[in-house]
Amino acid sequence: MTIVPQARFARYTMISTALALVLATSVAARERPTPRPPLNFLGVPGLIDMPTGHAMPDADLSFTAGIFDGTVRNTAHFQITPRLSGVFRYAYIRDYGGSGAYYDRSFDLRYLLNPESDTLPAVSLGMQDFGGTGIYAGEYIVATKTIGRLRATGGIGWGRFGSHNSFDNPLGILADRFKTRPEQTGGISQTGRLDVGQWFRGDAALFGGLQYQLGENLVLTAEYSSDAYKSETARGLFKRTAPVNIGASYRFENGLDLSAAYLYGSTVAVRLSYSINPKSTSAVRGGLETAPPIVAVRAPGAADDLGWTRQADGKEILRSNVAQTFWESGLRLDAFAVDARSVQVRFRNLRYTNSAQALGRATRILTSLMPASVDTFVLTPITDDGTAAARITFKRSDVEELAHAPDGSWQALARAGIDDAYPADGAAVSQDVFPGFTWGVGPYLSATYFDPKQPIRLDLGVQANARYEPQPGLVFQGQIRHRLTGTQGDVDPSNSIIRHVRSDVGIYAREGQTALTSLTAARYFRPGSDLYGRLTLGYLESMYGGLSGELLWKPVTSRLAFGVEANYVRQRNFRQDFGFQDYDVLTGHLSTYFDADDGFTYQLDAGRYLAGDWGATLSVSREFGNGIRIGAFASLTTVSFDDFGEGSFDKGIQFEVPLSVLSGQVSKRKIARAIRPVQRDGGARLDVQGRLYDGVRAYHQPELQSQWGRFWR
Q1: How far apart are the first and last CA of the chain?
Q2: 67-81 per-position pLDDT tens digit
Q3: Where does residue 580 fall: left (phi above 0), alpha (psi -120 to 50 degrees), or beta otherwise?
Q4: Helical H runs in 653-700?
Q5: What are phi and psi of 402, to 5 degrees?
Q6: How far apart are CA 256 and CA 253, in angstroms?
Q7: Is 0.70 surpassed by the pTM of this model?
């Protein structure tokens, strides 16, 4: 294509975009709802290679794979809030580094400055690859306006987005430093640094395009790209003959989106995306979950009958009936006490992802089994480790009145008493529950991610575990694994210049074919009001053994909690049997937790890490009503970026997905993973089991309130 058609297309795109914005100003100003926008080949709301101004719906989670001419881009995009979104991208580029396949990791952030209204376009600001190698690094401001079935987009970009038909940076009028873009500090061998000095600096360029909705599912797109692909063309990896891209995408009803495009006058590309919204995804599909027990309503005057209290074995019969019915409903009765007017139960939730639903099931059962004179229900949910988390009190008359009320769930919450479970109640421990012993044997699949030479390494084997609880809060447990096959042991030896506290994972995998992954004794206790404690001794995880202690302050009605953890540990030998290496360390953290609205939880841990470095870790997660949790974390410590090595500092993403979401069957079991772009030694923490906060908060008022809609389910 010659220069003249390119210039004409660019002018046509810019004029069309401006016309769309002008025409829109004649309509009354109000925010307009927009459907889920298409994703581009970089996995963000966009045209083909360029971004657009719209955001995805709140909480949308999208996965994209785009392929063209020796490049594969895999992207996960999460709409963190209605305006803020985050992106993790993992790309394969053939021969980019000059020595065969190259795998690149990068992060993006996008912020919706203005949602589209009848008069104004959607406007977004984005930073692409701001924390990776920088080969995709660029910043942009982009606007998109919808007129009927047509969407017009125009934007200005820097970095990669300012590399074709560029001009002097208009921000140069603010300061001379914006006129030039410094060289990246790390290069492709040093990822993770935040090159703040590059942002919105250097030459800028315009980009834009048009999208047309042809029918309900098909979108046609044409764009003018400002990305010159300088690095790829210089290495002979890609031929770019024109700045024009055209394509089409087809969206299926199940969230899949298939796209094909002709890029830069030289190559064909295909893209597949899948989007899901955990905010609106049910934990269990209707018809698969067992119906709750009915609420038994007492006959008028029945509460005055106390004849049952004179039956010698009456209380034991009631306890047995409650224990049996609880068990059939996915609950376990740990302790029980009843008198003429009240009943106290301590129980564990074995089945339900939703804590409020477990409370509701227990309450329903008590209405059907307790004598009519018993009008006060005191329920104490117990964590999986035996800690009394809270004490919830219901009046039976309220339960009967509200069971079928239109807003009965919220009225039940308003009338319930939620208090601290300290000191312990007088309920007698069930002798048929303690001591308790469970064990199991089954397969395991272990994974490490983003090795520079291989995206995923897997180990497959068989594991056996056992758990013994002689009394509430005293737990002995152990696990043994035998690896049958896998590639985790093929990781290159660590080149870390600080103590190898995590980066020798490949040696542990190779030499620990049969490994004692954990063997501990743990004591969980309540030292006082609003206080929770844990002591754990033994082989705490696959790499460390020793003593770990934790104290948590968490009032039942508070969104705020504070904790302190101290550990004295010694590094285990590579075989993961009973021996140790000659490295020991005192490590621990002070922690602050805050439960915010919309399911957000913020955690800040400050202290000493396994390599002896000091620093802090910030974790942010969002949990939805179905139990899905998505989050991210980052640690900055006294280990410098250079000493840390590849990645510059510890960071990653976390997710939890209940099996009930995948299987449609009620279950508390979850798939939980923490995915790091690279595992190094700086900012490394002990991976001890049974930390207190998540178990305790599940039955405190802020968490119960967010889940209370399922109390009657």
Answers
A1: 64
A2: 998 899 999 999 999
A3: beta
A4: 659-663, 692-697
A5: -95, -5
A6: 7
A7: yes
